[in-house]
Amino acid sequence: MTGSDNPTWVAGPDYLVAGRYRLRSKLGGGGMGTVWLAHDKTLDRDVAIKQVFSTAGLDIEEAQQLRESAMREGRNAARLSNPHTVSMYDVTLDRGEPWLVMEYLPSCSLAQVLGMTGTLPTDQVAQIGAQVADAMAEAHAGGILHRDIKPGNILIADRGKLAGTVKISDFGISRANGEFVAGDDTMITGTPAYIAPEVARGYDPSEASEVFSLGAALYAALEGQPPFGIDDDAESMMDKAARGEIVPPQHTGPLTDVLLRMLEPDPKRRPTMTVARGALAATIPGAGGSLEYVLNSPLRASDGRIPVWVRRASAGGRRAGVPGGTVGGLPPAPQSVPLDRVPRPQGSGEPLPLWRTTAPVPPRKAASPWERIPLISEIPRDKLVPAAVLAVALIIIVVMIVIMV
Ligand SMILES: Nc1ncnc2c1ncn2[C@@H]1O[C@H](COP(=O)(O)OP(=O)(O)OP(=O)(O)O)[C@@H](O)[C@H]1O
Ligand SMILES: [Mg+2]
């Protein structure tokens, strides 16, 4: 017996969720369900709605626990009202399945942006970080953890009055999912590429582990890959996270100091979200040290306009292949990896060393347009003669034009 009315049924466009929310179109989908643009009939407004928790395959008791967990996390998230948090409006049941109803933010996620641009300038990354840290500082003050801070959950408004404003979404969702799926407390929630070392080693998430995850997301936005590098295998990624061995950053510029502090393997040595927020904002030269300006202004390029990457993302310039809220090239990693399937590093449980790094990565080479012109040695032998004839003909035409002029 399962807790779901019909485990194989999948909602589609025009479906009316809980008699109130009419599904319009898909906004995207990550590791935990599809996000829909929907219309709230009662309040006559657009909302984003997501069925992240499926009771399919669970027995009645487990299904009920899942519903309660979803409701609890939804209620927690609904207590937050920061300008940099995607508001949670409602948690509702439809056919026995919990759906989350959120503020609709016309936006692109940082993961989508990075899939397109690879990296972002330091001042824009600092402002993204300060705005997310502001939301998180408020959540931490209220005793609420996010549990899955990563580029896929950082949204940047790309249209309308809020264009250029940064908001964090999906508060508590991985907990509601992860804590239940295992049926016990040996689940790790979060995304391996952005997880703090102590969480990868089985300790509970904390305010400090969220500072690490935010640092990891900002590191990825500057370096083009997360601090532990890219690995197809989630378990091996968890192993690297557990060891706390980050790849030394090469492109973090003025953010190097604050990011290294946020990525400290020892959670006790990391700054709080509030301190990180101030330190990130202080690195932005144009802001003149004003935290208020950094938090209240939308992201801007040096010409004062909304950055071109935001406009390109909204114009549909997204590159395919960044599912699951990961940065470009990184495969989607599961939200929850059972602790007993994660290989334990040697000495697990012992205090982590303060700083351990892997071999330095070679500096990136700037791509030059000349590199795209093939050398004669690269032209296939059978194309050499036609290429030479073409070149001679071109030279003759140019010489004749010069003589005639
Ligand atoms: N509140 C929202 N308003 C508008 N668009 C949203 C909203 N929430 C999510 N989206 C869009 O839906 C996409 C998918 O979000 P989703 O949370 O499902 O994926 P993810 O964060 O990449 O993965 P995960 O399932 O692990 O959270 C986002 O990248 C974003 O473009
Ligand atoms: Mg998400």
From TrEMBL:
<feature type="binding site">
    <location>
        <position position="50"/>
    </location>
    <ligand>
        <name>ATP</name>
    </ligand>
</feature>
<dbReference type="InterPro" id="IPR008271">
    <property type="entry name" value="Ser/Thr_kinase_AS"/>
</dbReference>
<keyword id="KW-0418">Kinase</keyword>
<keyword id="KW-0547">Nucleotide-binding</keyword>
<keyword id="KW-0723">Serine/threonine-protein kinase</keyword>
<feature type="region of interest" description="Disordered">
    <location>
        <begin position="343"/>
        <end position="363"/>
    </location>
</feature>
<keyword id="KW-0472">Membrane</keyword>
<feature type="domain" description="Protein kinase">
    <location>
        <begin position="21"/>
        <end position="284"/>
    </location>
</feature>
<keyword id="KW-0808">Transferase</keyword>
<dbReference type="GO" id="GO:0005524">
    <property type="term" value="F:ATP binding"/>
</dbReference>
<dbReference type="GO" id="GO:0004674">
    <property type="term" value="F:protein serine/threonine kinase activity"/>
</dbReference>
<keyword id="KW-0812">Transmembrane</keyword>
<feature type="transmembrane region" description="Helical">
    <location>
        <begin position="384"/>
        <end position="404"/>
    </location>
</feature>
<dbReference type="Pfam" id="PF00069">
    <property type="entry name" value="Pkinase"/>
</dbReference>
<dbReference type="InterPro" id="IPR000719">
    <property type="entry name" value="Prot_kinase_dom"/>
</dbReference>
<keyword id="KW-0067">ATP-binding</keyword>
<dbReference type="InterPro" id="IPR017441">
    <property type="entry name" value="Protein_kinase_ATP_BS"/>
</dbReference>
<dbReference type="InterPro" id="IPR011009">
    <property type="entry name" value="Kinase-like_dom_sf"/>
</dbReference>
<keyword id="KW-1133">Transmembrane helix</keyword>
<protein>
    <recommendedName>
        <fullName>non-specific serine/threonine protein kinase</fullName>
        <ecNumber>2.7.11.1</ecNumber>
    </recommendedName>
</protein>
